[in-house]
Amino acid sequence: MNYILTPREKEIFKLLINNNNTKDIAKELKISEKTVRNHISNVMQKLGTKGRASTVIELIKLNELSI
Amino acid sequence: MKLIRKLFYTTLTTFTILTIYTISSIEDNTLRTNLELEDITNIKTNTVYLLNNNNYLEKVDIFIEKSDVKNQVINIINYLKESNNKIQSNYNGYVPKNTNILDISIKNNILYLNLSKEFLKEDFNITITGLIKSLLEIKGIDKVELKVDGNYVEGYNKVFDKSLAINKKYELQNRNNINKVVVYYMSKDNNYIPVTKYVNDKREKVEIIIDELKNNNDSNLISYLNSNTKLINYKEENNIIFLNFNKYLIDDINSKEKIINQIAYSVFDNYDIESVIFEIEEKNINIINK
User: Fold this and answer.
1) How close are the terminal C-alpha atoms of chain A, in Å?
2) Which DSSP letter does residue B255 get?
3) What is the model's pLDDT at position B252?
4) In this predicted model, what pLDDT tens digit does every residue of B39-48 receive, in sequence order?
5) Nearest by Cα to B241 from B281, B212, B270, B199
6) Contact partners, residue B241, CB within 8 Å, separation at least 6
7) What is the rounded distance in angstroms from the CA atom of residue B142 to the CA atom of residue B108?
8) Which pLDDT tens digit goes with each residue over B214-271?
9) pLDDT at site B122
10) Are B179 and B199 in contact (CB under 8 A)?
11) Which of B173, B174, B178 sits opposite A67 (nearest CB)?
């Protein structure tokens, strides 16, 4: 079964929709802020979206993120 | 002349009494018929979701043959087929007509269903949502595991329960404070249409529900809640939610039941509670149990 998000990407976006910023996410997952930004960019590229808000909305519509 | 007048009034009185008796008998008989129908016949009421002409999945009560849970599942799948001409004209079925049931079993209130590949047509979101929601209305089914041709459907849960979103509406402007709320509207046929709304609003869901019902502007979704209604306060304790409103909650007595039900059903879908108690200025006016 193919999912859009990798497990790490899912972790990041779950934190993102809970009002965390890049710094918060990096601290929580013990990774660098650059790594967080790279993961988010990868997902935007996969979806063809621009901006974190539209990416989050698209992921919710695709059932990749649940509220 | 006096005799004729007497005869006239006697006849008129008798006719009036007979008319009143007949009407109340018909109403009584109708009520008795509805209540006893399931006892005296081989049919029962089931709630299914049918697609209305505005593309909303609407909760509709239908009569199907009484049977065990497994056969109810089979009957409902067949009922929801596009080819079913027993569906009322203002609704549509959506399960592709060539869909076959490859495997079906029920264990611990979980329905395990494997359908043939014909089930998945282009844009099958409505098909899956409507079918799953309809099957979850069957007493004895709490969850549904769905496979198609032996495989889980990509992009969907493996197992569904009543939290499955329906008639989804996205009213999101940004990624912050995203909330998911189910709101019950009504259709022109007086059926309920649950809508899952995604909004940027971190308030309590019950506050969002009341605001959404007050401020509805979709003509295909009806809300009877007066826009001057105010939820003064609320509390949740012991599986009961108490909602205290101002006097505008019930400004039209003819719509009272619809208003109360719209709010109660919305609340039941968003909270794990057993009862909703309605108050107007702290005076109890109604209790709705799940």
Assistant:
1) 22
2) G
3) 86
4) 667 888 899 9
5) B270
6) B206, B234, B235, B267, B271, B273, B275, B276, B277
7) 9
8) 999 899 999 999 999 999 999 999 999 999 999 999 988 889 999 999 999 999 999 9
9) 79
10) yes
11) B178
Question: B132 contacts in A (CB within 8 Å)?
Answer: none
State the nearest Cα–Cα gap between B151 and chain A, in angstroms. 9
Q: What is the ipTM of this complex?
A: 0.85
Q: Which residues of B touch A63 (CB under 8 A)?
A: 155-157
Q: What tokens were used for B10? A: 């006697």
> Hey, which residues 9-48 in chain A have their CB within 8 Å of chain B?
16-17, 19
Q: H helices within B137-274, ranges in order?
A: 205-214, 256-270
Check: CB of residue B86 under 8 Å from CB of residue B48.
no
Question: What are the residue ranges of helices labelled H in B137-289?
Answer: 205-214, 256-270
Q: Tokens for B201, please give them.
A: 């609003």
Q: Looking up tokens 């990774």, which residue turns up?
A: A31
Class (C level, CATH) for A7-61: mainly alpha
- Interchain pair A56, B173: CB under 8 A: no
> Measured between alpha carbons, how far is residue B16 from residues A18, B23, B80 in Å?
69, 11, 47
Q: Among positive and negative, which fits the CA dihedral B123, B129, B130, B131?
A: positive
| CB-CB contact of B81 with B87 (8 Å) | no
Cβ contact (<8 Å) for B170 and A53?
Answer: no
Nearest to B80 by CA among B95, B97, B67: B95
| Amino acid at site B113 | L
β partners of residue B147: B114, B152
Distance of alpha carbon B37 from its chain centroid, rounded? 21
Q: In which band, very low, low, confident or very high, does the pLDDT at B74 lie, cut at 50, 70 and 90?
A: very high
Q: Cβ–Cβ of A63/B151 closer than 8 Å? A: no
* % residues pLDDT > 90 (chain B): 76
Residue B2 touches partner A, C-beta closer than 8 Å: no
Three-state secondary structure call for residue A40: helix
